[in-house]
Amino acid sequence: MDDEVTHTEIHPVSESDGPRRNWSLVALILAACTGLGLCLGLILLSGGSLAPSQYPSTSDAIVSESPPAPSSLRHLPTNPKALEFFVGPRQTRLQLTFIPGGSCNVGSLPDADLDPQGFELPRHEVTVAPFYMALTETTQAQFEAVMSLNPSASKGHLRPVEMVSWQDAVEFCAALSAITHRTFRLPSETEWEHACRAGSPWPYYYGQDSRRADDHAWSARNAVYGVQEVGLKIPNRFGLYDMLGNIWEWVADPWHSNYEGAPSDGSVWSEGGEHLRYTARGGGAIVNSPEECRCSGRSTLDIPSAPDHGFRVVCEL
């Protein structure tokens, strides 16, 4: 019977059969609609797949008990010259960019308003060898990935780590060097300013007009809620973020109250100075005015740490 083909005979329809066949068609359509409605009703009453209770609810959704790992600074564009490392159990990313060697003027011209104590004098030329520098200040995620703790007062994975002493920063560099088998350290004071200026001879790496500061730096004018996440402002020409404002950054040099006798080769000025007090750069922080957030800005602390002091690292070639 599988090979049997069923043939349907087609008979001509007479004019007298037309109305009767039309009413039959209408009756069949009504019966089909009624049957479909009954089926849908049974599905809904029986908790079928169309019942509202079968849609996902918030109680059924999978909710992470902790925020996603801050494994990268996703809002930062790809830097073709970046050197990348992934550290810690969450593989937190650390990016550094190449800083070309060269010469620049460090310090500032006499300014009774912005440098009344003469910390930035005399202005002098230095020649710096190339190195890698972190794109951002060391974040809390990066510090925790290496040191397994976060001392910061203003918590946030992408905020810079603060409340760290100069010694804490040095120990972080040592631990990071052991993990990566590369030499990490704090920048010298002249390396820091060379990287900050990125070729700019002006007080700010973006020019002379501090009215443009809000696009480039977090200061007392726009950081009303304290220390901010890194990488949200326009970087300098070397691709470095937040070199002005947000926090002060520890550098390797002990504190000297001016530049008299400073080396001209970019090395750490280790001779003399106050070895119980170290230099911080950053061109100001969130407690400083936009005018004070300058490439030549210098500071130090009378206490080991503060909520506006952190650091960024460099890596030797």
Describe the structure.
By secondary structure, this protein is α+β, with helices and mostly antiparallel strands. It folds into 2 domains: 18-45; 82-315, paralog of FGE (formylglycine-generating enzyme) (Alpha-Beta Complex), CATH 3.90.1580. It contains 4 helices and 11 strands. The chain has helices spanning 18-45, 140-147, 166-180, 189-197, and strands at 82-87, 92-99, 102-106, 124-128, 131-134, 184-185, 248-255, 274-281, 299-300, 309-310, 314-315. The strands form 3 sheets. It has a 5-stranded antiparallel sheet. The protein has a 4-stranded mixed sheet with strand order 9-8-7-10. Strands 3-4 form a two-stranded antiparallel ribbon. Strand 1 (82-87) and strand 2 form a beta hairpin.
Core attributes:
317 residues, alpha+beta, paralog of FGE (formylglycine-generating enzyme), 2 domains, five-stranded antiparallel sheet, four-stranded mixed sheet, 16% strand, disordered N terminus
List the helices and strands and how they pair.
Blueprint: H1 18-45, E1 82-87, E2 92-99, E3 102-106, E4 124-128, E5 131-134, H2 140-147, H3 166-180, E6 184-185, H4 189-197, E7 248-255, E8 274-281, E9 299-300, E10 309-310, E11 314-315
How much is the radius of gyration in Å? 34 Å
Count of β-strands: 11
* CATH H level, superfamily name of the largest domain: paralog of FGE (formylglycine-generating enzyme)
In the sheet with the most strands, the strands line up as 1-2-5-11-6
Structural class comes to alpha+beta
- At the third CATH level, what is the topology name of the largest domain? paralog of FGE (formylglycine-generating enzyme)
String of helices and strands: HEEEEEHHEHEEEEE
Per DSSP, what share of the residues sits in E-state strands of 2 or more residues?
15-25%
At CATH level 2, the architecture of the largest domain is Alpha-Beta Complex
Question: In the residues, how many domains can be counted?
Answer: 2
C-alpha geometry: globular
Helix content: 10-25%
Largest sheet: 5 strands, antiparallel
Supply the CATH class of the largest domain.
Alpha Beta
Show unreliable segments: 1-21, 38-72
- What value does the average pLDDT take? 79
